[in-house]
Amino acid sequence: MIIAIGNDLIELERIRTVLRREGEHFLHKIFTPTELEYCLKHADPVPSLAARFAAKEAFQKTWPRAHGWKDVWTVRDPTPQGPFSHTRPRLEFVPEIALEMKQNGWTVHLSLTHTREYAAAVVVLEGF
Fold first, then answer.
1. 2-79+88-127 placed in CATH 3.40.50.11030
2. What angle separates helix 12-22 from helix 46-62, to the nearest 10 degrees?
3. Distances in Å between the alpha carbon of 94 and those of 26, 59, 73, 98, 99?
4. Is 41 a catalytic site residue?
5. Contact (CB, 8 A) for 123 and 6
6. By CB neighbour count within 10 A (0-12 exposed, 13-18 middle, 19+ buried), where does 121 fall?
7. Which residues of the chain have pLDDT under 70?
8. How far is 106 from 28, CA to CA, in rounded Å?
9. Is 56 part of the annotated catalytic residue set?
10. Domain limits of the chain?
11. Which residues lie across from 24 on neighbouring strands?
């Protein structure tokens, strides 16, 4: 059963502007080391950063309370799943959120995408 759905769309230029203005401060305030390691290895890290920013926003829209930027983060499974040749992104959580999800029998699904101008994320919070 679907408990909640959250989505977020962000303009890549918005992230570029914040990066020019705040630089490292913005990166370390919003993203975990795991996220930064993945994003910063790309020639243009902005689409990946923006998609992860959108994922955090989309998850917040499914969660009953506010949480910090680094309480939720995106990782990629180490090996491809299913018939696709790419790895799938998923969300991980600080222990408090992970425990509440486990106690409620909730799981979360994540989809990320980006174009030349936008990045988007959809989060589905599911209960059984």
1. no
2. 110
3. 20, 13, 9, 6, 9
4. no
5. yes
6. buried
7. 78-86
8. 29
9. no
10. 2-79+88-127
11. none
Residue-level pLDDT at 79: 63
120: which 2 tokens? 């988007």
Tokens 């499974």 locate to 77
Asked if 123 and 91 touch (Cβ cutoff 8 Å), the reply is: yes
Residue 78: its pLDDT value, please?
A: 67
Which candidate in 61, 67, 70, 109 is catalytic? Answer: 61
